[in-house]
Write a structure and sequence with these properties.
The chain is an alpha/beta fold and 792 residues long. It has 24 helices and 25 strands. The chain is globular, with a radius of gyration of 34 Å. Bound molecules: flavin mononucleotide and iron/sulfur cluster (SF4).
Length: 792
């Protein structure tokens, strides 16, 4: 034994082959002389460094490369360096320690920047877990469906889509699939799908989730080692009888899996996580999800990436950041642009027929950089004129030319500009509803699904400059239409396209619900209230007809400054006028109208609304701005209601946007009323209305938006409020009787207003959870009364 030790222990042998010099001698020598030796070595090192520095020859350290080095790398080399060289992990056994082989792993880059080889086929792997075999059966059926469609997909996309594979999570080694993408014999790009039932007991699901978590946190492995997958999506099964909602654990593991996969793939969520109740709607929900998956696979096969909005293939759209400023719809106005000053330079257009000529003219000439004076079209008065027309064909400008600062400002704020004067934008409630975080007040009050609602305007221009406009930047203002007029077909197609494009961009956003996403791909409502004045657009009636032909409801908000257009307006589902003040002075201060006869126009609009009240659902919208239009104005508003007799009065606290427009107008947070202040006002208004013998009552509320609805008792049947709309009936009436047809708002009154939306119950959508900006759940607390003075 001693012999073996001597042979194997280097400390016991001869030193580096020099006979006679023992290792012990060297150690002793070292101990005797180590201090002078170390000092000498240090002096030598310092001297060498000083010498090199003085000669200016200090080379960058190889261990710590300088940043500038990396910038000199060619683009190509950069791309190559970004390829993930993921280490394979082997285990010495099921319980043995993990060992990593392989090189340095770099952060993955977005897929669109990585070369995608279209000659490589695409393959789908379906993973499932199942304890009581239901999911297993579904997975196998789904495999058969996907296998059948693979051939069709290959044919449609011109890309080889291989037969999919299915894997029971209990049978596979996770290392083979989830540390890096699985090996494919055909060298295929892979797409992962998961069908996962949730279990609050220990199952293979827990092992998988733990594995994914460990992989993500393992410092030796890239945090996103599955980034080279084409995409992934999860469908969860649960049981609503035992776990009624997500807060109680419904489908909780599917959501968790979705989160880990998002991290491991660098957010390659190809489709929102779907959820199905095994005792309820699971077939329907699964079919919807599967349909969406089919479309995504086709897209990815064609293009090699997931498409816009999904990280890894386009710009990620995370809506949280936008939520702060992007508040609600409503007629919103911009700071006046230079165009506002272009007055009096040209003749008025005498009749609407001239618009066609304007359009033709503009089509033939470059309009954007024209120096000629624009044509003023007074759309505030209709009718044939006897005035002689000049013969000179004018050059007409575009309202929002592509190269204008207005265009840049609006697109930066998220608007898609359609043609030259229309816009579409996804409102924050649409995003919120897609994520199950609540819908806008129109869901509570009228049954509008926010995720199926398109917010648009055919006229970005307006004739007011309201102080509470929450869109910042510049936009055209004016009392006359003096721009090119785009045809309604073009606007209609353009706004739909812009809306759907933005909806699709939300596909990869965390928390988007599969069923809502699928529903969102069918617009059902249109809020014509984005910015500008929709009835300013000369072809508004044709545009409305197009919406209605596709059974899209119309909520049109106008600013009560265009009586002629209001009178000529055909059927809309709900017609609003903004009532921003109760008297002339207040209106001037708050709306800052451009028309000199603004008060007369305003009053005429109320009279028109009164006439229309048995044809249209008419609404007064009051926006309360503390210090401007609230105090002591209840009586004034009651008089306006008496004049217009609208079906509904919507009262809403202003939302402060902090723009220059608002601060220039002296607006600050202190002008935003508390909900209890809005409640106090509404109570006061209701009382005044009752005192005048007007039969209105407080019907519903959406406390989250500081919004309360007063309704005419025409909409109270047997003591129950019916503020919701029967949209199908509206279209039936319209199709049967035409846009001038004879019917009343009561004819398309919907079911009773749901209990939760009634005044006193808050109006929170019970399907959804309220969350704060970080996604944490928050309680719905409604304060309807002024807090006691000592609580301030
Ligand atoms: C013990 C047990 C625990 C469960 N826990 C949950 C749960 O936490 N959340 C949920 O949504 N469903 C839960 N479920 C319901 C199952 O997810 C559901 O029945 C599923 O369809 C089972 O799929 P399988 O037959 O493929 O195993 C549970 C079911 C059982 C039997
Ligand atoms: S009505 Fe439509 S556009 Fe307006 S806030 Fe609601 S969801 Fe948004």
């Amino acid at each position: 034994m001693a012999g073996v030790c001597q042979k194997t222990d280097p400390l016991q042998g001869s030193f580096r082959g020099r006979p006679g010099v023992k290792f012990d001698d060297v150690v002793e020598l070292w101990h005797e002389n180590r201090t002078p030796l170390i000092l000498c070595a240090l002096v030598l090192l310092a001297a060498t460094r000083v010498y090199i520095r003085n000669k200016g020859e200090l080379k960058p350290s190889k261990a710590l490369p300088k940043e500038s080095q990396s910038t000199s790398v060619t683009e190509d080399a950069k791309r190559r360096s970004n390829v993930v060289i993921t280490g394979r992990i082997n285990t010495t056994g099921p319980d043995g320690p993990r060992r990593i082989k392989g090189g340095v792993v770099k952060k993955p880059v977005a897929e669109d920047k990585v070369y995608h080889d279209k000659s490589r086929p695409v393959k789908v792997l379906i993973f499932f877990s199942s304890v009581t075999t239901k999911t297993e059966k579904i997975a196998k059926q789904y495999l058969a469906t996907l296998s059948r469609s693979a051939a069709q997909l290959s044919q449609d996309t011109g890309r080889r889509v291989l037969k999919p594979e299915v894997h029971d999570l209990a049978d596979i080694d996770f290392e083979d699939f989830f540390v890096s993408p699985a090996k494919s014999a055909e060298n295929a790009y892979l797409f992962y799908l998961f069908l996962l039932p949730s279990y609050n007991i220990d199952t293979i699901n827990d092992t998988l989730l733990q594995h994914l978590e460990e992989t993500h946190h393992d410092f030796r492995i890239d945090t996103a080692p599955l980034a080279s997958l084409l995409g992934y999506s999860v469908f969860g099964f649960g049981d609503k009888e035992g776990w009624p909602d997500e807060a109680e654990g419904y489908c909780f593991q599917a959501k968790e899996l979705d989160r880990w996969m998002s991290k491991l793939t660098a957010r390659k969520r190809a489709y929102p996580v779907g959820m199905g109740d095994m005792r309820g709607n699971h077939v329907e929900r699964f079919d919807e999800w599967a349909l969406g998956i089919q479309e995504v696979i086709a897209h990815v096969a064609r293009n090699g990436s997931l498409g816009e909005g999904v990280p890894g293939s386009g710009d990620a759209v995370e809506s949280d950041g936008e939520d702060v400023v992007d508040e609600d719809d409503g007629e919103v106005l911009f700071e006046d642009e230079a165009s506002g000053g272009e007055k009096g330079s040209s003749r008025p257009l005498d009749d609407v027929e001239d618009l066609g000529r304007m359009l033709r003219t503009s089509a033939n000439k470059p309009s954007t950089n024209s120096k000629k004076a624009p044509l003023a079209v007074d759309f505030t008065s209709y009718g044939w004129s006897t005035k002689k027309r000049t013969q000179v064909a004018p050059v007409i400008k575009e309202m929002v030319a592509k190269n204008s600062p207005t265009y840049a400002a609006l697109t930066k704020q998220g608007y898609s500009i359609v043609g030259s004067h229309s816009g579409v934008k996804i409102c924050r409630w649409t995003k919120s509803a897609l994520r199950g975080r609540g819908s806008c007040y129109k869901y509570s009050l009228y049954g509008i699904n926010s995720h199926q609602c398109m917010e648009t305007t055919p006229s970005l221009s307006c004739s007011n400059k309201c102080v509470f406009c929450w869109r910042h930047g510049t936009n055209p203002v004016g009392t006359t239409w003096r721009w090119v007029v785009d045809p309604p077909e073009m606007i209609f197609e353009g706004v739909k396209e812009g809306h759907y494009k933005k909806i699709r961009m939300l596909r990869g956003v965390p928390g988007v619900r599969a069923e809502r996403y699928a529903e969102a791909l069918k617009i059902r409502h249109c809020a014509l209230s984005l910015v500008g004045e929709p009835i300013f657009y000369p072809h508004i009636n044709e545009f409305l007809a197009m919406l209605h032909a596709e059974r899209i409801s119309s909520f049109l908000v106008c600013n009560a400054q265009h009586p002629d257009q209001l009178a000529a307006l055909k059927a809309v589902t709900q017609l609003y006028v903004s009532i921003d003040a109760s008297n002339k002075d207040s209106l001037r201060k708050i709306d800052r109208p451009l028309h000199r006869d603004f008060w007369e126009r305003f009053q005429t609009c109320l009279d028109i609304l009164r006439e229309k009240r048995f044809r249209h659902r008419t609404v007064f919208r009051l926006t309360l701005v503390k210090g401007f239009n609230v105090e002591d104005e209840a009586e004034g508003y009651a008089q306006l209601v008496e004049r217009g007799l609208p079906c509904f009065v919507e009262v809403k606290g202003v939302t402060y946007c902090g723009t220059s427009t608002s601060s220039n107008a002296g607006l600050s947070m202190s002008n935003v009323p508390f909900y209890w202040e809005v409640c106090e006002f509404v109570n006061a208004l209701e009382k005044r209305l009752k005192d005048k013998g007007l039969r209105y009552g407080i019907a519903a509320e959406h406390a989250h938006s500081c919004c309360i609805l007063l309704a005419s008792e025409r909409f109270s049947v047997n003591g129950r409020w019916h503020t919701h709309i029967d949209y199908t009936k509206f279209f039936e009436l319209l199709e049967e009787r035409g846009p001038d047809g004879d019917w009343t708002p009561e004819d398309y009154m919907g079911e009773p207003t749901p209990e939760w939306a009634l005044w006193g119950n808050g109006g929170f959508d019970p399907r959804d959870a309220r969350v704060d900006r970080k996604g944490r759940k928050i309680e719905n607390v409604v304060v309807r009364e002024a807090p006691p003075p000592d609580s301030w």
